[in-house]
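dumping this here so i dont lose it
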């Protein structure tokens, strides 16, 4: 399975917050032979912004996150003009531009989007996976 990790999922993985995942999701995350993992450049951008704002309880740095991703084989997914244009076709359920872009990327690139975001889950698409219920 090809899986796009939502930004908060990447942060939970980096923070070793495995208690946030169902046992099946943990199995999926640990099975790197059968699953290929991606993180959008939009997520790295979001982390860079939060880091620059010096948000409390946010110890993550975009450059360190990129290095750690490479070490464990998570691939970086670029943003294409088609991805950007596709955002305009989404219903306005979610106003977060980063999350809207992730939804479009997952759909266009035929990836499963792994998330726990209630607003993203409202899109009710088969390619959007809820980390808490699977």
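and the seq i came up w/
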């Amino acid at each position: 399975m090809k899986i796009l990790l939502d930004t908060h999922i990447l942060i939970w993985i980096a923070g070793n917050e495995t208690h946030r995942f169902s046992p099946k999701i943990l199995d999926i995350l640990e099975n790197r032979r059968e699953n290929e993992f991606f993180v959008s450049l939009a997520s790295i951008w979001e982390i860079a912004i939060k880091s620059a704002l010096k948000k409390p309880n946010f110890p993550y740095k975009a450059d360190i996150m990129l290095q750690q991703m490479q070490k464990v084989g998570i691939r970086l997914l670029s943003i294409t003009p088609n991805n950007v244009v596709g955002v305009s076709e989404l219903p306005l359920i979610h106003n977060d531009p980063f999350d809207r872009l992730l939804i479009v990327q997952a759909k266009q690139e035929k990836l499963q989007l792994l998330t726990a975001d209630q607003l993203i889950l409202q899109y009710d698409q088969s390619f959007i996976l809820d980390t808490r219920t699977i």
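The first strand starts at residue 2 and ends at 5.
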